[in-house]
Amino acid sequence: MGEEYGTHKKCKYQLCIEECPAGGFPLFRNPDPYRDRFFHHRGRIQSGIDFAGGSIIQYKFEERPPLSELRDVLKEAGLGKSIIQTFGNPKEVVMKLSEGSDVEHLKNIMREKYGEGADIRREETVGPSIGRDLKNQAFWAVLWSLVGILIYISWRFELKYAIGAIAALFHDVLITLGAFALFKYEFNTPVLAAILTIIGYSLNDTIVVFDRIRENIRIERPRSTQHYEGVVNGAINASLSRTIITSLTTLFVVIVLFFFGGEVLRNFSFALLIGIIVGTYSSVFIASPILIEAHLRVGAKK
Amino acid sequence: MKRVEKWKWVLIILVFILMVLTSLPSAGLIKDEKIAKFFPGKVNLGLDLQGGTHVVFEADVEDLREKYAERNQELKKSDIEEAMARAMEILTNRIDKFGVTEPLIQRQGTDRIILELAGVKDPERVAEVVGKTAYLEFKLVSDINPAEYLDENGEPLPEKQIPAQLQLRYEKDEETGRRIPYLLVKDQVVPGATLTDAYVTTKNAEYVVGFRLNPEGAREFARITESNVGGRLAIVLDDVVVSAPRINSEIPSGEGVIEGGFTAETARDLALILKTGALPVKLNIAEERTVGASLGRDSIRAGIKAIIIGFIAVIIFMMIYYGLSGFIADTALIFNLIIILGVLVLFNATLTLPGLAGIILTIGMSVDANVLIFERIREELKNNKSVGKAVENGFSRAFITILDANITTVITAVVLYNFGTGPIKGFAVTLMIGILASMFTALFVSRVIFQTFLARKNVTKLSI
After folding, report:
1. Does B409 touch chain A if contact means CB atoms closer than 8 Å?
2. What is the C-alpha separation between B132 and B55, in angstroms, rounded?
C-alpha cells in the first residue's frame, strides 16, 4: 500500500496538487491509519508542465518502435527519468521531460535514429517563472469567480442561498479534483478552464432549483422550519425533470466531446464530464439542504 | 392572441442575413477572391489549430544589471523599459526580414515579450534565431596558452587566477562537441555595433558570412590588425568564439568574413540577425509551445466531428422529447451556431481548440434555456391554462431563471478571459458569445416564432 511513493513518505496520505514534498497542497490528510484499509490511496493529482514546468514532446511514428526502445533513446539522451506513454492512437507517443532537460539534444538523437519516420506533432516547454505565474493566475481566477458569484447570488437571491450555492461549488470542484487523482489524468491549464466552467455551470443548475424554491416560498410563506423544509422539498420535486433534462442535453455534448473531441482535449472534457454530473446532483443534494441549514442559522433571525 | 410586431421579424431576419453572410467564407463556401473581398474575412484560427509557435521571451534583467555595474552605472527602471522597447523594435525588424506573415509580437508585463509565429515552415527555429542577442565583438587572442589556467575538462583552475586584462571564452566544436578555450585581450575590441552590412557568401566552397564596418569601425579594425600581424583575431558572438582566424596582413577596408562551418541556412540566419543589430538585453525563452500543422488539422477535424455528433444528438433528443416545439428549439440552436461563427468573424476573434470545445458546450447549454421554457409551459398547461397563456407565462417566468443561470457562467467566462492565455481566452470568448447568442435565440427568436405560430391559427393544442 503506497509503496510506489515510498520516497515521499510525507505524501502518503495526502492528496497533493503539485510535486511533493516540496510544499504540496494537502487537500486532505488521513489521520487514522486503519482507514487506510478501506480508502486505497491512488496517488496525487498529476500536475502538467503548465504548472510544474518542464517539457513535453509528442511524436507521430509511421511505424512506432516499442516503448522500451524509446526509453533507451531517452536514456541515451540522459533523460532516463522521463515519462513516456502512447497518446490517443498507438502510433503516437508523448514524452514528458522534467525542467531543464535538453530537448534539442533528444530531438537530434530522434532525428538521427528515425529520420522522417518520426514527426514532431507538438512541443511545449514551460520555464519555472511561467509555471509560477500560471499557478498564481489559477489561484486568483478561481478566487475572483467565487467572489463574483457570491456577490451576484447574494444580490439576486439572499445570502443564505449564496452559502448553499458556494458549498455545492466546493463539493463539485473537490470531487472533480479527486477524480483527476483517481484516474490519473493530468492537471493543466485547459483543465483549470474546465473547473471554472464547472463553477459557472454547476451554479446554472443550482439556480434553476433555487429559483423555484424562491418562487414557492413567496407563494407559501412558510412559518415553521418544517414547513420551510416542505416547501423546499416540493420545489425540488416540481423542478426535478427540468433539472435533469437541462443537464442531460449538456451532458450529451460533453460525452461526445470526451469520446470524439481528440486526445489533446481529453483531460479538459473529462473534467467537464465529472463536473456536470456532480454539479447536477449537488444542486439537489448539497445546495438545498445547506440552504435549509443556513435558513435555520442565519435566515431565521431576520 | 395579438399579432407579432413586424419589427421583431425584421430584426431577426436582418441578424440572420448579416451572420450568414459573415460566416460564409469561413464555412469554405466562397472561394472566389473577387467575391470574398466584400466579406469581412474568415475566422482567425489559433496556433493550436493552424500550427505554429508561441514563445515567451523573458529579459535577463540580472545580466543587464551586471553589464551596467561593469560600467559603474546603476540600472534604472527607465533603462529596462528602454531596452525592452528597443528589443521589441529589433525583434519586429528581424521577423519582418524573415518574411513571416502576420506575426504577433507583444509586450507582457515589464520584462516579457510574446512572439507568435504561424504559417512558416519551421516556426520554432525562426523564433529561436530571432531571439538571439547577436552581440558581436572582434577581440585579439592572447599569446598566453590557456592550458596553463585550465584543468583537463577545460574548466578554470581555482588556484590560478586568470590575469585581469584577459578573459576566458570558448569555441564549440560542432563535430566532436568539445570546447576549445581561448584567452582574449579584454581592451583590444572592435565593437560589433560598427557593422553596417552582413551577407552570405562562399569561401573555399564553404558558406561564410561577409561583413562591412562603418569608417570608424574600419579604422579601429585596421589599427588592431596592423599592429598584430601574425596574431589571431577572435570573432565573438554572444560571448562564444565563432572562429579565430590568423591575421595575415593589415585589413584597412573594414571588410571581412566570418567562418564557422555554416550551412546555407545558418549563414543566412546569422547575416540577418547581425544586420538588424544586437538586442540591448539578453532574452531567455521562458515558455515555448509548438504545434505541428498536422496536429492542428487533426484537432480541427476532431472538433468539427464532435460538434456535428453533439449537434445531431441534441437535435434528435429535442424533437423526440418536445415534438414540434423541439423543432423550434432546434431552429434556434442552428441560428445560435451561425451567430457564434458570425460574431467571431465580426470581432476578429481567434478560434482555438478549447474554443471549439466552447462551441460544443454551447450547443448543450443553449438548449437548456429552451428546456427551462418548455418545462414551464408544460406545467402551465397542466394547470389548465390556455395554450396562448401557457406560452406567455412560460417565457416570462423562465426569463429570470435563464438570466440568473447564464450570468453566473458569464462571470466565470469573463474571469477566464482576463486570466487565461491564448487558447483559454479562445474558450472564454466562444463561451461568452455562445451564452449571449443563446439568450437571444431562446428568449427572443423562439418566442417570436411561437407567437407568430399562435397568432395565425386558433391553436388549442400544442405539441410540446
Report:
1. yes
2. 13
Q: What is the mean pLDDT of residues B424-434?
A: 89
User: CA-to-CA distance for B44 and B359, rounded, in angstroms?
Assistant: 15
* Alpha-carbon gap, residue B441 to B11, rounded angstroms: 12
Q: Which of B121, B294, B412, B424 to mutate to test the interface with A (most CBs of A within 10 A)?
A: B412
pTM of the shown model: 0.79
Does A129 touch chain B if contact means CB atoms closer than 8 Å?
A: yes
Mutate to test the interface with A, among B175, B419, B430 (most CBs of A within 10 A): B419
CB proximity B355 to A under 8 Å: no
Q: Does position B226 have pLDDT exceeding 60, yes or no? A: yes
pLDDT of A32 above 60: no
For residue A135, what is its C-alpha cell?
499557478
Residue closest to B54 by CA, chosen among B286, B223, B303, B386: B286
Q: Point out the residue among A152, A193, A265 whose CB comes nearest to the CB of B416.
A: A193
Domains of chain A: 3-44 (no CATH), 54-126 (3.30.70.3400), 130-301 (1.20.1640.10)
In A, which residues are within 8 Å of B294 by CB distance? 60, 119, 121
How many CB pairs (< 8 A) connect A and B? 204
pLDDT at B312 exceeding the cut of 90: yes
Average confidence score pLDDT of chain A:
80
Domain B52-129+276-287, CATH number (from 3.30.70.3400, 1.10.8.80, 1.10.357.10, 3.40.190.10): 3.30.70.3400
Give yes or no for B312 touching A (CB within 8 A).
no
Instruction: Please report the beta strands in chain A, taking only residues with DSSP state E, as ranges in sequence order.
Output: 46-47, 54-61, 83-87, 89-97, 118-126, 186-187
* Per-residue pLDDT tens over the stretch B142-185: 888 887 788 777 777 777 777 878 888 888 876 666 788 888 88
Residue B205 in this model has a pLDDT that exceeds 90? no
**Residue keyed to cell 511561467:** A130
Q: Please give the Cα distance from B119 to B227 (Å, whole number).
A: 51
Pairwise CB contact (< 8 Å): A122 & B410: no
Of A189, A205, A248, the CB nearest to B421: A189
Compute the average pLDDT of residues A57-71: 89
Q: Which of A204, A248, A261 sits opposite B405 (nearest CB)?
A: A204
What cell does B108 get?
507582457
Q: Which of A121, A207, A260 minimises the CB distance to B405?
A: A207
ipTM score assigned to the predicted complex: 0.77
Taking the domain B6-47+292-456, which CATH number applies? 1.20.1640.10
Please state the rounded mean pLDDT for residues A151-159.
88
